[in-house]
Design a protein that fits this description.
By secondary structure, the chain is mainly α. It has one domain (about 10-95). About 65% of the residues lie in helices and about 10% in strands. It is built from 5 helices and 2 strands, in the order H-H-H-E-E-H-H. It has helices spanning about 10-20, 25-45, 50-55, 70-90, 95; strands spanning about 60-65, 65-70. The protein has a two-stranded antiparallel sheet with strand order 1-2. Helix 2 runs antiparallel to helix 4 (about 70-90). It is elongated, with a radius of gyration of 19 Å. The model has no long low-confidence stretch (mean pLDDT about 95).
């Protein structure tokens, strides 16, 4: 099975679409890197350096009857937002790498 995409690069809209198509792999890899390098450390082993220092300085708050760092909760909420955006745009990160 083959697929051929054709673009009229003299047409500004099609030229933009061509640029999107040809940069899709880079965009996917950037999203994957954000997930792994920014959010995964929070869930797995914590951050190195300034980010972890700032999280550790945040006061504790209660979430679902449990005390957690406010900074930790912020990172968790941002990760949820990231994954919601990925899902809303029908991107299955597991099928693309």
């Amino acid at each position: 099975m083959k697929a051929t995409l054709e673009f009229d690069l003299n047409d500004q809209d099609e030229a933009m679409e061509y640029a999107r198509v040809t940069s899709a792999t880079s965009a996917y890899l950037a999203l994957h890197e954000i997930g792994n390098d920014i959010f995964r450390p929070h869930r797995k082993h914590g951050y190195n350096g300034k980010i972890q220092e700032l999280i550790d300085q945040c006061p504790d708050i209660e979430v679902n009857g449990e005390k957690v760092s406010a900074g930790s909760e912020i990172v968790s909420l941002l990760e949820d937002m990231f994954h919601d955006i990925i899902e809303k745009n029908n991107i299955n990160m597991n099928n693309l790498l």
